[in-house]
Amino acid sequence: MGNIFIISNNTLALAKYNCAIKVEGDVGAVFEAARDRIYQGAKLISHPLSGSVKPNQGPYKSIVLSATLTDAVDITSLTLIEQAIATLRKLPVLHRQYSELVHQDFQVVDLDLLDSAMKALTNVECRI
């Protein structure tokens, strides 16, 4: 498959994967960072809306993209990330104050989804 990298705001994912790029901010910031990379020629490898946690409920997100850039924008990847951004914008903004334990739980859920995606990939190298 080639080279991949991860866009994430999850410190557990950043600590585990040396090809993870840190994004400051919320899930929307992760989606926008992924969209920017897609415009640069990357392709989505994992779906931005994976898992059962709605993007306005969980504060952490990790997305796998191809590190091998193409000259053209991948329309399928762009459509998926734009739909994820639109879905997030449609949902109400939740102003919940989560405890540290709940934040840790959200990080573990995101990391588990990321680990599942990574295990499903074959013949890839994790690089920035």
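(the above was protein one; protein two follows)
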Amino acid sequence: MERETQDILNELEEKNIPVYSFSRIETINNCLYEAYRTYILEDKDMAQNNVYAIMGGKIHDVLEKIMNNEATEKDLLPAMNQELEDMDMLGIEFPKGRDGSDSIKQGWIADMTHFCNTYKAPKGKFETETFFLYETPKHHYLQGYIDLTRIRKNGLLEIYDYKTSSMYRGEEIKKHGRQLVLYALGKEQQGYKIKSINWIMLKYCVVSYIGKKRSNSKEESEITKIVERKNIVKELESVIETKLWKLGLDEIDVEIILDDAKRKNEIPEQIANEFTIKPYVMNYELTDEIRQECNEYIDSTIEMWENLDSSNESQYEHIPFTKTKVIKKKREDGTEYEENKTTEECFYCYSLCGYTKKCPYFQTYLDTKEKSKENDDLW
């Protein structure tokens, strides 16, 4: 299979047929100007790695080594902390919170520190960085590597992708789900049957314990919660306190232990064996409709991209910096009216784009925004 795939890649290269990656497809859809600088100009000197790509890459590397018996779970936290130190030295920063604080950085570190301290490698036989080559219905080609795969006894394939991002919600699920679908399409084309496609959301965990589902209930049963790791003690505070009281501790001891648990964001060792903590595996449904949508998304993106004139930079438009939507409101007399509300849509530009500090369009936007603030300060 590997030799056959390599032969296909060699043939495509000889015919000058491009082979895309999913990240390239996403860059094209996120911002044509970034895609232009990256893939047309190949302006690598201008590009900058963002903090999430760096930290996610480091965590991925160590997890891969753990699965291949080249590292252990104890290597996770030192590797993460070293990478954080290296980023500080290079001046690569997390985005600031809305209030200008380091809340985003602190939250991410708290989540991932808990992950590193509690992670246990999954049981079973897995393969890491599995390569695939996929040909779409319109004969476009994509290649990539899958973080983790496992073939079950019935021959069905499970696909897993590590994510250090926040939980996907709403339309984000569909947007990010296309990557998993592409993995499935690639492996199906190789003859595999897919059992499931999944994200392993590293910032979250599944906590199980025995307790009462309702405060007025007399019966206890197993309760399972999905919790963001930085909030694990906060979310379970009442449960932890109840279990501490059941140990027969006095009020002062309970208070001291609970305060220590909050400070460390760790379940107290006195009751730790009463809780089971596992990484959160988020399944994405794989249907024929979803397969078709993914194919259409990929083919339409590539067709649009290849129809652009690479010698005309103006065709590669920058992502909008603001978004305006119409809001319906009511006057005091009960009559309705419409009002336009403009919001800034720059998270990608601030935090994820490879050209944030050198993009002329973004810098012009920031300059205009700053001048507007200066004018507002006059009165």
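Reviewer note on protein two: The beta strands are 19-20, 127-135, 141-151, 156-163, 193-211, 221-228, 275-284, 322-330, 336-344.
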